[in-house]
Write a structure and sequence with these properties.
heterodimer; A: alpha+beta; Glutaredoxin; 5-stranded mixed beta sheet; globular; B: mainly alpha; Cytochrome Bc1 Complex, Chain D, domain 2; two-stranded antiparallel ribbon; 52% helix; elongated
């Protein structure tokens, strides 16, 4: 075969493969209407007997009850987020490394959903000794956000660290880390039944874009359940 | 004869590449230092974080406190600071390890990017400023 024709042929095959692949990817993504989010975490089968028959239910990992105090000295518990979806993270106000980036991304979520009563943001401090209610109040005021939508919570140190485990977020006190605490920049998406539905890198704009889209999916699912 | 000319040509080209590489590196040093030391708080676009962290982009402070910026970068800042009419009050950690030439490059990057179009610094100027830094309290 003429080498030039051969070359053109090869190019054509590569190009059409590309188009097919992208068309396929696109068609998958555009199918978002009936998309659902997975439930993250461990699951256990639980058997129960109804009318003499054994039924197996799946029990998913659920965020346990909690009680913290927010920037307005209000108690924030599981009741505060009842029937709502929420995004949660762990930070501290004097954090010099990733927290400002996380907070600037969380602000994007805040702006996107500030008029939606079914969405709440919940930021836990991992430095409760320094981050008192007054410190959190000033922090929130300077971000110019409303308490009812975005709770910055403090509380008992051990309870906060235990909750981080429940959300699968890594936090620890570490003298070697900048600011004295090591923690991940994760944002976790929790549904109205307190199941974890998504995990995102709170310092990366693209991943937070994905979170904002996933919240849309979760809100649709919630509406569907209520009907 | 032909071989030696080839060798000379080869080393000449190598030297030229190394040199230009040097220059491009220097030109980007300010930007690299910004990414390394400033970006996590002042953000990629220099916008800062609402009322918490002041902006660098189009900040009047860069002009009104031009002579203090070298010391600010080296020793950090503490206490209230007004930028574009808004008061901020958050400690900024200094970067004590930066050399005079690095601070000059970083300052020039900041003064001429993020929508800023301010006067550049010479290295002598920065050295003079650093010589008379106020003693950082508590250190």
């Amino acid at each position: 075969m003429n080498p030039r024709i051969n070359y053109i042929l090869k190019q054509t095959i590569v190009a059409s493969a590309f188009i097919c692949a992208s068309a396929l990817t696109y068609s998958c993504q555009s199918n978002s209407a009936d998309q659902t989010l997975p439930i993250l975490g461990s699951r256990e089968p639980v058997e129960r007997v109804v009318d003499g028959k054994t039924i197996v239910d799946t029990v998913y990992h659920q965020i346990p009850d909690f009680a913290f105090t927010d920037q307005d000295s209000q108690r924030v518990t599981q009741e505060t987020v009842a029937g709502k979806i929420y995004v949660t993270d762990f930070f501290f106000t004097t954090c010099p490394s990733i927290c400002p980036k996380m907070k600037s991304q969380m602000l994007r979520i805040y702006e996107a959903y500030k008029d939606n009563p079914n969405v709440v943001l919940l930021s836990h401090t991992i430095d409760p000794a320094h981050d008192t209610v007054a410190v959190l109040k000033e922090y929130a005021d300077r971000l110019n956000v409303e308490t009812a939508k975005w709770h910055f919570v403090t509380g008992d140190r051990d309870s906060i660290y235990d909750m981080a485990l429940q959300y699968f977020v890594g936090v620890q006190e570490d003298d070697q880390a900048e600011g004295g605490f090591a923690h991940s920049g994760d944002f976790m998406l929790i549904d109205q039944n307190r199941h974890i539905r998504g995990h995102y890198h709170g310092t990366e704009q693209e991943d937070v874009d994905r979170l904002i889209k996933d919240m849309e999916i979760l809100l649709k699912e919630q509406q569907h359940e209520e009907k | 004869m032909k071989k030696s000319r080839f060798i000379v040509g080869f080393f000449g080209a190598l030297a030229l590449i190394t040199l230009t590489q040097c220059f491009t590196d220097k030109q980007n040093q300010g930007q690299k230092l910004y990414v390394q030391h400033c970006l996590s708080c002042h953000m990629e676009d220099g916008s800062g974080l609402r009322g918490l962290i002041p902006p660098i982009a189009k900040a009047d402070y860069l002009q009104t406190h031009r002579d203090e910026l070298a010391c600010l970068i080296r020793n950090g800042a503490d206490g209230p600071m007004v930028v574009n009419g808004i008061e901020y009050n958050k400690e900024m950690p200094g970067v004590h390890t930066l050399r005079e030439d690095e601070i000059t490059n970083l300052l020039n990057y900041i003064q001429t990017n993020f929508g800023n179009n301010n006067k550049r610094y010479t290295m002598t100027e920065v050295e003079e400023m650093l010589d008379i830094c106020p003693v950082p309290h508590g250190k």
